[in-house]
Amino acid sequence: MLESGLKINNIKVVFHYKEKSINKIASIRMLSVYPIIICTLIAAFIIANHIENNEFLKNKDLLYMFVLIGIFFLIAGFFSGKKSLIKILADTKFELFGSSIEKQIPNGKNIRIEFREILSFHKVTSGVLLKTKNKKLEIPNELEGFEILSKEIRSHIHAHVIHYKTNCIIPQVIINTTTSIGILLILTGLFIFETKEQKLLFGIPLFLFLVVAIIKILSDKKNKHRDYTTIYKAIFFTILLLIYLAYIFFY
Predict the structure, then answer these.
(1) Dihedral of CA 43/48/49/50: which sign?
(2) Highest mean pLDDT: which range of 113-122, 151-160, 208-217
């Protein structure tokens, strides 16, 4: 355990998740993807049922079988996925060394950030979010010695770095879930609706996602920060919206 106020100079210090927090984090992360999985299953059922002229709803045995299989995979997938996540979280580490910090994930892509490249130090509810020109790294407050690590990073970054704190921020998992559900609604609408007007209504969520992404880009530009992830999402939504509109009007 590091002592409070310790100054780290060219000494590699490793931070791990708190052992008592790993099980809770794994459960939350697994549950966070379940809205998308459940919506995908529902969308698949609606599309399949529509293609088969309501065969699933007419045949109760087929319907019960579909529901039971879905529940089985949801329960089995939760415990299997949680077990794997616990192992990954236990082996994940944050290495602080001199002028940089690196997140090392087993069998994953490591993220290394040099302190001199940091453009913003964003304190959020879940910890600290560091952003460079083309990278970002979240340092969770569930780490052993989180406060010491946070202070050490602040002591190394340049004075011009933007420091700000946000207590009321929409978690990224909610944004991702909402986006995924919106896209599923669009795909479902393409199959079950016949008229162009009805299909256009299901394209509204995609348009709203694009508007939010553009507002975020303009806000980042005003704060002299550029988040390339948001820019890529805006480009993706634009292309998807154009393809969707072209499909509706020309096919």
Answers:
(1) positive
(2) 113-122
Q: Do 130 and 120 meet the contact criterion of CB atoms below 8 Å apart?
A: yes
H/E run at residue 34 = helix 19-51
Tokens of 51: 């293609």
Q: Which residues contact 20 (CB under 8 A, 6 or more apart)?
A: none
Whether 117 has a pLDDT exceeding 60, the answer reads yes
- What is the DSSP code (8-state) at residue 8? P
pLDDT in tens, 67-83: 898 899 889 999 999 99
Q: Which residues contact 92 (CB under 8 A, 6 or more apart)?
A: 16, 17, 103, 104, 105, 106
Beta strand ranges found along 57-214 (DSSP E): 93-97, 100-104, 111-114, 120-124, 127-131, 136-140, 162-165
Q: What is the pTM of this model?
A: 0.67
